[in-house]
Amino acid sequence: MSALQQHWPMPTAPRPIVIIGAGGIVRDAHLPAYRKAGFVVAGLFDTDRHRAQELADAWNVPIVFGSLEEAAAADAIFDVAAPPVAHRAILSALPEGASILLQKPMGLDLAEATAIRQLCRDRRLIAAVNFQLRYAPMMLAVADAITRGDLGELVEIEVHINLVTPWHLFPHLNANPRVEIVSHSIHYLDAIRALAGNPLAVMARSYGHPSSPLADTRTSAILDYGSALRAVLSINHHHDFGRRFQDAAFRIEGTQGAAMIKLGLLLDYPTGEADELWTAPRGGPWEQHSLDGGWFPDAFIGPMANLQRFTAGEDDRLATHVEDAWHSMALVEACYQSNTRPGTPVPGY
């Protein structure tokens, strides 16, 4: 198989970026990604001025804004890396027509996502949601293989996650009535949509775990794409029995070929292991592809590159535009709605 496309094209003349939010995801992913890409971060704002200043000092960001209004006055692309509960207030404070990358999820439920979409329409915002897994090198490569016809007609997409996630790193999730799907599996649902389009329906069930205070940390889901494509998720964040049988993988099969993706980041998160991509034609053999980067931080380059290029007229499509991202939120909502419905009783009970 010839070389697969692993990166989104870069903008010819990238505009400076102002980041709103100075949390861990900015430190661990946004700033490393933008430095690697050569993007200029012109300033930071966070309601915690001290935290923003520490981050700016560590990454040589020249300005820490004293207020959201001051940040909004900058001539820049805005990267809103704030919690979803703050999205609407921040979007309302940014200039009409601004170009904005919005941290996922797009609100915590579909009602909030719908309100965010309407706000973006009303204020003519060029807004995308940072669903970055679909931009990771191995996911872009698989998308390229599918587009080229290397796999044939898709018949199988399986996401299998069986590992230990350090949920204590995310204490803000403790009070949330929805956790696993909207905070974690949303990545897989969006990535599947990017590969196969919108499903017709979904059947899902999420569970808590005796060892965790969180509402839900384990999920099973079946996405209905009709009779040809079987798409399933099996997610368990509590396999605390050593590394041997832990797993974080996408399996994608078509009538002519298959791909296996190892999501190395999730194994011993946040240290992680290397991502892997393997492909095979029907009958084999398997070939491992050299990856130029991983989920963190490289996948965070793609959404910003696409937004920059779309704003400049270099891309004709904003892949995770709020109009598209709304459908990922609708799929998440359908999973939670399915979770409230009883299954079909087994005769005899």
How is this structure best described in words?
The chain is globular, with a radius of gyration of 20 Å. Strand 3 (77-80), helix 4 (87-93) and strand 4 form a beta-alpha-beta unit. By secondary structure, the chain is of the alpha/beta class. The strands form two sheets. The chain has an eight-stranded mixed β-sheet. It has a five-stranded parallel β-sheet with strand order 2-1-3-4-5. The protein folds into two domains: 17-132 and 300-322, NAD(P)-binding Rossmann-like Domain (Rossmann fold); 134-286, Dihydrodipicolinate Reductase, domain 2 (2-Layer Sandwich). The model has no long low-confidence stretch (mean pLDDT 96). 31% of the residues lie in helices and 21% in strands. It has helices at residues 24-37, 49-59, 68-72, 87-93, 110-122, 137-148, 180-196, 301-312, 322-339, and strands at 17-20, 41-45, 77-80, 99-102, 126-129, 154-162, 201-207, 218-224, 230-236, 247-254, 257-262, 276-281, 287-289.
Features:
349 residues, alpha/beta, Rossmann fold, Dihydrodipicolinate Reductase, domain 2, five-stranded parallel β-sheet, 9 helices
In short:
This protein is α/β, with parallel strands linked by helices and 349 residues long.
Averaged pLDDT, please? 96
H and E order = EHEHHEHEHEHEHEEEEEEEHH
**Order of strands across the main sheet:** 7-8-9-6-10-11-12-13
Please tell me the CATH architecture of the largest domain by its name: 2-Layer Sandwich
Number of helices: 9
How many structural domains in the coordinates?
A: 2
N-to-C terminal Cα separation, in Å? 53 Å
Structural class: alpha/beta
What is the rounded Rg?
20 Å
Pick out the low-confidence regions: none
* Helix percentage range: 25-40%
How many strands, what sense, and barrel or not for the largest sheet? 8 strands, mixed
Beta-strand residue percentage: 15-25%
> Can you count the beta strands?
13
